[in-house]
Sequence to fold (815 residues):
Amino acid sequence: MGEVYLAEDTQLHRKVALKVLPPEVAANSDRMRRFKQEAQAAAALNHPNIAHIYEIGESGGTNFIAMEFVDGQTLREAIGVQTDLRKLLRCLQHVAEGLAKAHAAGIVHRDLKPDNIMITRDGHAKILDFGLAKLIETPKLSSTSSDMATAIMPQQSQPGTVLGTVGYMSPEQAQGRTSEIDHRSDIFSFGCMLYEAVTGQRAFVGADAIDTLNKIIREPAPSLSELNPSAPPDLQRIVRRCLAKDADERYQTIKDIALELKEVRHELQSAASGATVSPATHKLADPPSGETTAGSNMLPPEGGAPITQVSSAEYISRGIRRHGLAIGLAVIGLIVIGFGAVAISRYLRVKENAVAIESIAVLPFVNQNNDQNIEWVSDGLTESIINSLTQLPNLKVIARSSVFRYKGNQTDPFKAGKELGVRAVLTGRLMQRGDDVIVSVELVDLRDNKQLWGEKYQRRMADLLSVQREIAREITNNLRPKLSGEEQTRAAKDYTQSSEAYQAYLKGRFYWNKRTPGDFYKAITFFQQAIEKDPNYALAYSGLADSYALISVYGGGSPTEWMPQAKVAAQKSLALDDNLAEGHASLGQIIAYYDFDLNGAEREFQRAIALNPNYAPAHQWRAENLAALERSDEALAEARRALDLDPLSLIMNRVYGDCLFGAGRLDEAIGQYSKTLEIDPNFGTAHYFLSRAYEAKGMYDQAVAESVKAAEVGGFQAEDLVKMKDAYTKGGWQAYLQTSLTQILERSKKDYVPPYLVARIYARLGQKDEAFAYLEKSLHEHDFRITHVKVSFEFDSLHSDPRWADLVKRIGLPR
Fold:
């Protein structure tokens, strides 16, 4: 590639690795153009496990690349001297995480090998040379070539295109099938590096380069257990799948490998505790002429006892306990309800073990008519399936708000499933023809990328409930061997006998999920229609309660206007069905928000979670409740559980940031708010809370910027935004707060403004009397925000005032 210098950037005063390209390489203008295009894309990557490209430039006819200087050793050197497999696996996990970032950006490395991985002195891996393979000049490949030579094979499309390094390239690279080279080629190369880290020897070694290429194309790599008997069986499986000759049979995303390596590392750590057998050793095969395996830097200790050998039987036994694998036949039961119900009951055998599907995402059903008037049918069908699946034991079901991020997109189910972290994905299509509805569904196991089940149904809209009962019976019959009587009852539960009530309920949820005051009003109308058709429809009362409760939260009026109605509806739903998780969660939220009965709310949330552990809102609302009670660790655990069930939910991502904020972990909170805004840059409350976090750290420039963005998203006029910026520029933070106060008071003359927000500004301005006056008003209006007064830094200046203790006591907060 040319010469590499350690250099200093004299402008930024940092060390860089300066690669000076040979004139003969730079002279090829087409190659340089293609390289620059790819390197510029790679330079845009920002990940701790990718060595950053700072600049691609030319000076006096000399072309150069300025890259991050990494002080450490190559992975090849580390393999030669490192005997602790856990540390090597940690480095390779880092590599996989870096590759996941690149692959997500559409960038493929093409030349992964241990020499292109650097290990820093503190044990972190960094990937080098994205895109540089395109620059290498074409050598003549002969039978005497070193097996470490870079192979360049003639192509039909672009003669001389580099495919990779012999010994690490994929079969499609070795065969010159350029059009087939994608991120899965990197996965094969990664498998070669993983193999070498576990055994100390290369996966494919021939007498010469041609022989090595032949082995890559046609022969399997020797078993890991032959070279390292102490290697965990899971590693054998991971390597075997990485090294599949057919790209379709490999892992389809490198992120999956990173997650599996993390699990293996944890198993090795657990096995190492208390065991006494000697660690496995690594002996590197003799290197080709001119190579060295010596390295002066050992990887730093990761902690814990040395790695020890564990018997295969013991390791597999631990794996069974860890993964919840069943010996024999396992049952998957997936209930599909909505336009009726669809049963999915299948005995599965996956490779060596029979395993049950433990996690699933139901993607939004596609409305093939593209008719907005029946959108509620496809959305309602999806939500009904999700709600039904949550009743099945030991099945994680991704919540509605996360899966609906994919609505309207031509999403690859495999990609969506991987992003959501599930094992299986259910997809569906819906088409209306006159009075008939045709629904096609398909269940796919992502681990093998195979269809497990598919069916097409054609029914009349009027027959929805009869179809639901028929299929519910089928589900019960299929799942009876594995479900207890109580579980069977919950899985096949009918919430209403009225098809009209059911359809009205689906329409109500359709509008409720839009989360605007106007749509809440529409939702209320449909929930009331459902109740008129079936006065005993507990689920409809729960939906009515949720609608009333959130109107004031989303700016539709004072809590005193809506919350009493919400409480009546929630209590009615539980009077009709005390085993309704949604009803208990709704009541818990209402008595926390309106009655300030945080302990009573805690009991309701716990009851809801016990009835349905998959109900994400219950975990979210409990997290907020625990945060107000200053039980930070528990709040964070609940927020993480909510995110596990609903990873793309904006509100749950933000609430997790709120819990971090309340626990005093400001930097982590800032990171979480930023992550939330990556999902949706227009999520106004995330900008607002990010502004608060910056303010708490004294980072006023950033606080103003985020506050202005929040105001812009919230509908502030352009001239108001200009005034806010000018106030800060001319008068600093206090002037900015004063201007904000003037604007919010003016706004309160036209629209409802929660008094708690006004109190916050007065407190920061040091106007205690006004702050307490608005806090009293907030308490009188039952503004739910006041329950978080003790964990809000804005009120720190009030704590020494005698009025503070009295206020906290009347709210019912712990003192």
The longest strand covers residues 450-460. The chain is about 50% helix and 10% strand. The domain at 495-610 is CATH 1.25.40.10 (Serine Threonine Protein Phosphatase 5, Tetratricopeptide repeat). The mean pLDDT is 77.
